[in-house]
Amino acid sequence: MTQKRTFAFLKPACDRTQSAIIAELQFAGFTVLREETRVLDIATLKEHYAHHVDKPFFQPMASYLTNGASILLILSREDEADPVQSLRDLVGPTDPKKGEKEQIRCKYGAHLPDVIFMNAIHASGTPAEVEEEIARFFPDQILSPSWKISQWQRKYTWNDKLLAKRSLFFWFSGLFFPGFSL
Ligand code: CDP
Ligand code: MG
Hints:
Helix content: 40-55%
Number of strands: 4
Bound molecules: cytidine-5'-diphosphate, magnesium ion
Strand order of the largest sheet: 2-3-1-4
Number of helices: 7
CATH architecture of the largest domain: 2-Layer Sandwich
Number of domains: 2
CATH class of the largest domain: Alpha Beta
CATH topology of the largest domain: Alpha-Beta Plaits
Distance between the termini: 49 Å
Structural class: alpha+beta
């Protein structure tokens, strides 16, 4: 059985804030399976935030995220709680101003009138997002079996289509240039 895990990254902030957030995650029952400090690049952000690329806040958000180090985390729990949902509950709503005061985004995010993206932390929303995001941010990770299988299926479906196109091309070539397809 694969270990239940989730993915998060701490958005750029001072070292002390990021360390305090990691301590809070551990105190709340999360184990850090992997931690890496990295300045995110624009291509990765466009993929990760594909659902927001056309929004007016995307450019300022990308500029904020590419101008400081983020801390990428793979997290799990020893108890029975679902790591994905329990992290989202701990993190709170997207807008830090709307959270409860003990939730991470409310506590560490910026409370600004028109800006939401300085909300301290990203947390995957579903198990499918977890696998997709771990594959994006940690491409060398050992992936869960179901994710690996779907990748293989995609690869082979694609190869089959390519093979079919090639066969058709050679079959047509054979009509005009007898012997070419042999
Ligand atoms: O991060 P979360 O899953 O809660 O929200 P999302 O809808 O997937 O949006 C991703 C990120 O875009 C948020 O965490 C914010 O940083 C940013 N965002 C924003 O700045 N303004 C919005 N109106 C919506 C999202
Ligand atoms: Mg989201």
